[in-house]
Amino acid sequence: MRHSKSGFTLIELLIVVVIIGILAAIAIPKFESTKDKSKMASIRTDIRNYMTAEEGYLADNSTYTDAATIATSTNYTPSSGNSVLASAGNSTGYSIQIQNVTIVSATKTCHVGVGSAASSSTVDGVIVCP
């Protein structure tokens, strides 16, 4: 009497591994794109938080200031991975530029200008991510 053994053949297992590899090759680039979008969102959020801190500083001191003073007076800190490239402030406006170097896509920085610090190429108070 012959007993039949059940199970998968080597060819069937190899086909499954190849299919999983193809699906992973499709999914990984899409995942990277999603990570970049979330990092850009964190930059925009950091800029909005900075704008709020500047307005609070203006209410208390009747002038705008730079990121270093905002950090010490309002405990503002950028999110992990984000860094302030440039900031300026005076009695009539401020500007800030924040970057995240871990972003794979071309756009890694965003900036905003408010009041006299808004450049002619930007709209006052609108976050720009070129």
Describe this structure in words.
The protein has one domain (10-115). The protein is 46% helix and 17% strand. The protein has 2 helices and 3 strands; from the N terminus they run ααβββ. The chain has helices at 10-61, 67-74, and strands at 83-90, 93-99, 109-115.
Secondary structure: elements and pairs:
Layout: H1 10-61, H2 67-74, E1 83-90, E2 93-99, E3 109-115
Antiparallel strand pairs: 1-2, 2-3
Helix pairs in contact: 1-2
Spatial order of the strands in the main sheet? 1-2-3
Helix and strand pattern: HHEEE
Count of domains: 1
Major beta sheet summary: 3 strands, antiparallel
**Number of helical stretches of at least 4 residues:** 2
Strand residues, percent: 15-25%
Please give the share of residues in helix. Answer: 40-55%
Poorly predicted spans = none
Radius of gyration: 25 Å
User: Pairing-aware structural class of the strands and helices?
Assistant: alpha+beta
Compact overview of the structure:
The chain has 130 residues and is an alpha+beta fold. It has one domain (10-115).
Q: Notable features of this structure?
A:
single chain, 130 residues, alpha+beta, three-stranded antiparallel beta sheet, 2 helices, 46% helix, rod-shaped
